[in-house]
Amino acid sequence: MADSPLQINALIVDAADPERLAAFWSVLLGRPVAGRMGPYVWLQRENGLGLGFQRTDTPKSGKNRMHFDIASPNPPAEQARVEALGGRWLEEYDSGGFLVMADPEGNEFCIIPDGPFELDDEGRADYLG
Question: Model-level pTM?
Answer without folding.
Answer: 0.91
